[in-house]
What we know:
By secondary structure, the chain is an alpha/beta fold. The chain has helices at residues 14-20, 24-28, 42-52, 78-103, 131-141, 172-185, 211-218; strands at residues 2-4, 36-38, 59-62, 110-114, 121-122, 150-155, 194-196, 205-206. Helix 3 (42-52) packs parallel to helix 4 (78-103).
Amino acid sequence: MIGRAPSAPSGPFDWLAALYGLTAPELENTGARIVEIDYLDEGTIERAAAAWGDKPLDILINLGGLSPDPKSWQEQSAEMMVEKFRVIAVGPLLTIKHFLPKLEKACKARVVNVSSAFGSIPVSNSFGTCMAYRVTKAALNQGAEGRKVTMVCIEPGFLSTRLTGWDGEDDMDTCIAGMMKLFKGLTPKDHGAFLIWDGTKIPFQNRPGATDRLFCKAFPA
């Protein structure tokens, strides 16, 4: 399933080429089935769930892709906060809502919400940056509720992508391999966990003195 951010190119799936250098046919050639979802339009999520049918769904990976920028307090706005909240938090939770019946039919159902270490609420926020992004990622982290479904949040690493302005410190292949291993190994005991791509647990609220070390490891400012 493919989601679209509000700032993405307007043509169908054009953003795939812009973000990943991939086209829809190239993805389909891997065996993928593409169903388009717009996190800002619940109707598209409901239609995607209907298109999936009654088949079990083993894993749902939610990624509301918006940049952490701007950093400074002075550049934050109500409009920005609402947009980030709808794309990063509301859209994924609505997607879980509509796909939950399919997930609950699977033997080992998992939901992975791609979050950020910035979603951990520190006792002291010494960086003081990207507040709209931080608030919405913290909201996303509260959505790990399920019955027969294991739900976790993950920090994917500080990677060089369009969303980070091609700035990054972690190795893409290493992080992807780590996440794939993590996804496959999830069990009900992991339900509600907040994890870095390598399996390290992130506290939802950091103790004093640990905040900067954690953020520097996962997502430097």
